[in-house]
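I hope you will forgive my troubling you with a question about protein structure. The matter concerns a single protein, recorded as an amino acid sequence and a row of backbone structure tokens. Please examine both parts with care and let me know of anything in them that strikes you as inconsistent. Thank you for your consideration; the sequence and its tokens are set out here:
***
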Amino acid sequence: MFTHSDFMKPGHDQYVYRHANGLCVIGLAKTHVALQAQGGVTSVDFNVGKSDRSELKVSGKRKKNAQHFQPNSILCNVHSGDVPYTVRCCVKGPLLEVNNKLIESPDLLNTSDCAYHSSLSLNLNFDFSNDAISHVPQAEREGYIAIVMPRPGDWLKIKETLVDFDEFKKLRNLS
């Protein structure tokens, strides 16, 4: 599934992939304006408002200490040079993890092709021993922003607001 824009801001495209276990992987689509800008993404800042998302420590079966997010909640800001771009959660649910590797290596977003490897994105942060993705470069496995765990009922509601990959390609005139 894809969301094709950040609340009517043209070009702020993000993807949401849902794994069979219900977890959602969120990231920037290849068509996001920050990735299209000269130099691409130069920094990622998870320090948003009163909390630093990068210091999130979730534990246990019930995901103790997880922050609960709404679809319009800000996950982070990505910067292309001096220009900040807001990245939103897109789904309602507890935030389980943010990709802290992006703080030190924001170029993982620039080199990531996650938006075009659905089998890869669905396996993010799970088992990389799978032969189907073992050939995929490290940057493509690690170019996501966050993992969220929506309730099944919440997922059904938000799913209606997303477009699938084929529709996304048509909207953006991609081949």
About this structure: Residues 2-171 form a domain with the OB fold (Dihydrolipoamide Acetyltransferase, E2P) fold (CATH 2.40.50.100).
